[in-house]
Design brief:
There is one protein chain. This protein is an alpha/beta fold. Helices cover 40% and strands 19% of the residues. It contains 17 helices and 14 strands. The two termini are 34 Å apart.
Length: 410
């Protein structure tokens, strides 16, 4: 089941933010994340806040129905307009994630985007993305999305090998994600991403190379490649504990990452975040960059997290409880925290170090600067950016990014 929400102070019933959160807001980009919590089946590795029809049956009634979900989510977007008041910003990015957003009708996704357009306005060059399961879209569905304003789409491919997909409990047919890229291009999508996972039990180096080559052959301009993390409480974790499938170790993950870097680099992709590669600046995911750079975003939907001006909050997780709160005219927020200046400094180091541009050395304290000097000597940071006042990971540093960043935030 999905992981627990963090602790925090109560969110006001009307969702009001402290005045400090909106100070200087006009200088920061604003994005929206729209969470669609529905899945046809639960993948064995999934720890996200998602629900199948069976899991919702009898727990949320009509309020949890995906048939009226677009209308429910629209209520939170309108709440956001009230909370942000006369904030003049147009929305720079919208990202619809899940779950499986494309279990909703394409018209529902377009309607949700339309409410953002009506309430806030969209920047002329706004990036509008949805995630999609390859088996839930067809050319007509994709055409409706494109005509409705979506200009970027992210398909969950995970692997090209059937036995790997079986371990992950993925339901799509090998080859279908690649076909979806062609269909998305034909519908007019300029930017297409494929998500891959490496380190699945039973996957070989050759399996991983085949998945990369299949993804590249489809012609996306963005690839995300993530190491499989086995979360407690998932079906995959239980299978590993019972000895049914082996656990993949960190050395294998490192080898697979190096294969990804070599294969993607040879095809003209450049890394811009530790797990993300694009063929050009325009191909980068601007919405995720809002997260990594600590900008403002409103997360609408059950369990969605938001951040505005140093205030972070999160919604109740269950779709029924979420819909009930909005129906009663209350914020669905379950808790929040107000970040201190030190909290925000630490988060900048944690997140920006993962980016190709790195993090300013001026953000580091004395112990962090000493750690940066050691990382430079150990070949974990690039020399020229360091001389120019920035900590930027080398390829070896990317393999050890979590350890490097722990040292730098001290």
């Amino acid at each position: 089941m999905p992981s627990a929400l963090p602790d925090g102070e109560p969110v006001p019933a009307d969702g009001a933010l402290p005045g400090s959160a909106l100070a200087g807001a006009a200088a920061r980009p604003l994005g929206f994340y729209l969470h669609v919590p529905y899945c046809a089946t639960r993948c064995g590795y999934c720890d996200f806040n998602t629900y199948t029809a069976t899991e919702l049956r009898g727990t949320g009634g009509v309020l949890a129905s995906r048939d009226n979900y677009a209308d429910t989510l629209a209520q939170e977007i309108r709440l956001a307009r009230k909370v942000l008041g006369d904030d003049p910003r147009e929305v720079r990015t919208v990202f619809v994630g899940g779950g499986t957003p494309t279990l909703l009708a394409a018209g529902d996704l377009v309607r949700m985007l339309g409410v953002i357009r009506e309430e806030f306005g969209l920047a002329p060059d706004a990036e509008i993305t949805t995630e999609a399961n390859p088996e839930t879209v067809d050319p007509a569905y994709l055409a409706t999305l494109r005509e409705g304003g979506f200009n970027r789409i992210s398909f969950g491919m995970q692997s090209a090998r059937p036995h790997v997909l079986r371990i992950l409990d993925r339901t799509h047919t090998p080859g279908r994600p690649e076909a979806c890229v062609a269909e998305a291009r034909a519908a007019g999508f300029e930017h297409v991403n494929l998500d891959l996972i490496y380190g699945t039990p039973g996957e070989s180096d050759d399996d991983w190379r085949a998945s990369l080559e299949a993804a590249l052959g489809a012609g996306p301009d963005h690839v995300s490649a993530y190491a499989l993390i086995v979360e407690e409480g998932t079906q995959l974790a239980r299978r590993i504990r019972r000895g049914e499938v082996p656990m993949t170790d960190d050395d294998v993950h490192a080898d697979r990452y190096l294969i990804a870097e070599e294969t993607l680099g040879r095809a003209g992709f450049e890394w811009y975040e530790v797990s993300n590669w694009a063929t050009s600046e325009a191909g980068r995911c601007l919405h995720n960059e809002l997260y990594w750079r600590g900008a403002d975003w409103w997360g609408a939907g059950p369990g969605a997290h938001s951040h505005v001006g140093g205030v972070r909050w999160w919604n109740v997780k269950h779709p029924g409880a979420y819909a009930a709160a909005l129906a009663d005219g209350r914020s669905p927020g379950a808790g929040r925290e107000i970040l201190s200046d030190e909290d925000r400094r630490v988060e900048r180091v944690l997140l920006e170090l993962r980016l190709r541009e790195g993090v300013p050395l001026s953000l580091l304290k004395e112990q962090g600067l000493a750690a940066a000097r050691r990382a430079l000597a150990d070949g974990l940071l690039q020399e020229r950016p360091y001389e120019e006042g920035r900590a930027v990971l080398t390829l070896r540093g990317r393999l050890l990014a979590d350890a490097v960043v722990r040292d730098l935030v001290d």
